[in-house]
């Protein structure tokens, strides 16, 4: 923890010992040297600082008198006072929840992925994000240029968000998805994740069951885990979630579903299954949380309408976002639901962050009302489909006879399942050594599996090809054992 | 709740009874007719819809068969199934916390203010926000125009936020405030409120004491209340908080302070008091949360440096924002603290909303690095000072002999204290009837007081004059009784 990569300035008017005092004080104040850390020996410090040992002694004495350092029992000197560090050393509630439960084993992989995604040099073949190459630079330039005329000011907004955006979104939901909502049914959030957060805070009791498809994107559901919910995976078939596995007594529960281009399997829930699920939900008073992040990214044919469009009993809360279709950095999502629910979520949102950025909300409004978003989506669908076809061709070449996979009709994901049980942790680290970052299936599942989530949306096609070749080589190595 | 402001279409191919079924189904599905609501009598519905009673009976029967309506025990028909409403009717944890504690009495006033602030037609003389007249339209136009060249893409960002903004803020804190921090000590948040929220989730235990100045802006601290903290007001004098009133045993506690241009009293903590408070905090291992929202809005002389600048023991977490100095709609705030703390808060932020809007963060970066923000601040200080002087002149004319007030050296607020105990609730509602929205002192205080927070930042000067005249008339009426 404690590294001495600094030397005092010899020709400074400030005495050497004083420079050392200030250096150590700042390190402790910044929290870089945490409380309880042991300092190097006086001899080592003298050497590292390039000063006499007596200079170090003088500095230590001053720092001890300030209460910043203390003499250790077994000799040596330790950092004594850094109030915040003290406070931090006590494990807070949220971390206990995260550590408990089925995520435990998965966390190190997720953390590694989160960290490595911000390090250059890896080909990322699992990233659930559009490639920067697909960023609609021209469109956004046009929109940004219009902002000065569009934005009247940047004051505080009401609980539901920018009214102009609420109107644009409710019109879009009515026209494109047949969802009957008005502006008072729409709450703007900072992405869908915040909507999940608000729902977990406002509506669910600790210990409530949250049913999800298995596999699903558990990372985005950590918010439920953290709030003490009991996550339960429900198996799927080709038509979607097998809802009949849900317990008859599902009081106080919630079902979170991604019915269209599901993450990570790409599955589309059939129209029949949607209607059955809604009947089941109404009969069991089971609220449904429909995440439609990928619904607009269809290739050849529109998927069935959103669950919310078939909902006649007010069972569904619908979540939308542009994080997957355009730009996560806008941090714009929306909840469509009954007025009372939306109002309540909005009130709590006001207490946590006073609403989403109005700059982002104006940009989004302009994207929708100018028609620019729809033109963009049309082009994006074509490009994503090309990327999908390219990925499928490589998979056929590289993984035939070793794995099977779905042919997604939209969205980002191919769920690549090896035919045999393979050591996925080793595959992850071998791939990493070869410069390939994969998203292994166990971070999506309640138990182990032999799958990998492939995203054709992020990596450049030629890089995807290179990475899939590497991955198939690694797979083969273990497959043949 | 249930209003029948709709009629079926007589010449539609859809039978009348069916149109009524769909109408009521949608009302219930949208949550507009909540569960348990009683429908009007069949006779009244027949009249309102302009149909025969038998048509209403047919529609009711169908809706009852769907489980949407049910026959009431005492006759009549009620809304039966709306799954979300059912769920909502159970009081969730957060609302229990908000209802308990010292806010109880204040809530109705705060709620009224929150609602009325979005209704036109009131002169708002307490609003803690810059007037739209002060919105730097030209500057922001310039900045928006530059966005296309500045923004590389709008992908996900790391836990601490946009690195370019972290660098710009840490440089600013070093240069302008003498706070020794680097980019790794800075976390970008969606305004200061989110920082408070993260701190309450990550660092404080239920039942921990949170000390604040009394009075303070309690509304912004509801987040601590909601999380079950025990709020304790500490009295102030002209030099700031009288910290010696804090219990010697303040383990697990936190002190939240606005040392500069305090909200609502305008007080500036003296340099001596700052140093004493830091000594006290270090000695008692009491962490300090310094909210410096107004610090850059000084008029004639710079205020003392931030507490964080004098902090040699790592006791202070510093909160900054542009919500008060420029535009709350940007939703940009920052935390400056020890690396370990900032990293932890950032991790939790990633779990709640994946970070602040990158559009806003780029706008802010450009504002800081272009020098535009500083030029703007210089002009703003002059304008705010003029508004202050204007407000003081009116107060002298209208309230002499009835009330006293501070002369703020920066920030937004004048704390107007009546010399006698007056019925503040009546003054609030009388003012409202005359079109003036005031922020009565009891929403800032732990007990009652005879004060009103006047903000010279929001209302137009001539409107402020008009409103203060009205207020003094109302005050006089009660004062003389």
Descriptive keywords:
homodimer, 481 residues, alpha/beta, four-stranded antiparallel sheet, globular
Summarize the structure.
The structure is a homodimer of 481-residue chains. Chain A is built from 17 helices and 17 strands.
Can you walk through the features of this model?
Two copies of one chain form a homodimer. Chain A has 17 helices and 17 strands. In chain A, the strands form five sheets. In chain A, strands 4-12-11-10-9-5-6 form a seven-stranded mixed beta sheet, sandwiched between helices. Chain A has a four-stranded antiparallel beta sheet with strand order 13-14-17-16. A two-stranded antiparallel ribbon of chain A has the order 1-2. In chain A, helix 10 (222-226) links the parallel strand 5 and strand 6. Chain A is of the alpha/beta class and 481 residues long. In chain A, 43% of the residues lie in helices and 13% in strands. The interface between A and B is large, with 101 and 101 residues.
């Amino acid at each position: 923890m404690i590294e001495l990569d600094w030397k005092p300035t010899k020709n400074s008017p400030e005495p050497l010992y004083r420079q050392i005092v200030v250096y150590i004080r700042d390190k402790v104040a910044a929290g870089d040297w945490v409380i309880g850390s042991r300092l190097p020996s006086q001899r080592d410090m003298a050497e590292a600082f390039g000063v006499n040992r007596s200079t170090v002694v003088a500095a230590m004495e001053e720092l001890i008198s300030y209460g910043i350092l203390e003499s250790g029992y077994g000799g040596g000197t330790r950092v004594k006072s850094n109030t915040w560090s003290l406070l931090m050393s006590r494990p807070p509630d949220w971390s206990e929840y995260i550590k408990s439960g089925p995520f435990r084993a998965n966390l190190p992989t997720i953390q590694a992925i989160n960290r490595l995604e911000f390090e250059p040099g890896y080909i990322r073949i699992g990233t659930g994000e559009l490639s920067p190459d697909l960023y609609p630079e021209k469109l956004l330039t046009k929109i940004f240029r219009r902002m000065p005329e569009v934005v009247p000011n940047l004051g505080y907004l009401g609980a539901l968000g920018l009214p102009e955006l609420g109107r644009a979104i409710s019109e879009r939901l009515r026209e494109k998805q047949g969802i009957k909502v008005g502006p008072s049914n729409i709450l703007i959030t900072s992405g869908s994740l915040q909507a999940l957060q608000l729902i977990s805070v406002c509506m669910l009791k600790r210990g409530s069951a949250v049913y999800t498809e298995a596999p699903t994107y558990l990372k985005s559901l950590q918010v439920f885990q953290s709030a003490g919910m009991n996550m339960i995976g429900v198996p799927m078939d080709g038509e979607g979630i097998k809802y009949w596995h849900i317990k008859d007594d599902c009081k106080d529960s919630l079902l979170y579903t991604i019915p269209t281009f599901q993450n990570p399997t790409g599955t589309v829930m059939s129209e029949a299954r949607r209607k059955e699920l809604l009947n089941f939900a109404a009969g069991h008073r089971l609220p449904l949380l429909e995440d439609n992040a990928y619904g607009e990214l269809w290739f050849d044919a529109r998927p069935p309408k959103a669950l919310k469009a078939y909902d006649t009993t007010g069972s569904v809360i619908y979540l939308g976002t542009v994080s997957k279709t355009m730009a996560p950095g806008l941090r714009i999502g929306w909840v469509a639901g009954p007025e009372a629910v939306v109002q309540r979520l909005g009130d709590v949102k006001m207490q946590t962050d006073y609403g989403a950025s109005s700059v982002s909300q104006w940009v989004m409004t302009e994207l929708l009302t100018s028609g620019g978003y729809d033109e963009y989506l049309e082009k994006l669908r074509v490009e994503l489909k090309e990327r999908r076809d390219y990925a499928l061709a490589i998979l056929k070449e590289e993984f035939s006879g070793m794995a099977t996979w779905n042919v997604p009709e939209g969205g980002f994901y191919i769920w690549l399942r090896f035919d045999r049980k393979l050591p996925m942790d080793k595959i992850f680290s071998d791939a990493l050594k070869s410069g390939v970052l994969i998203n292994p299936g166990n971070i999506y599942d309640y138990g182990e599996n032999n799958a990998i989530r492939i995203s054709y949306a992020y990596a450049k096609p030629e890089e995807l090809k290179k990475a899939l070749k590497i991955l198939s080589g690694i797979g083969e190595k273990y497959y043949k054992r």
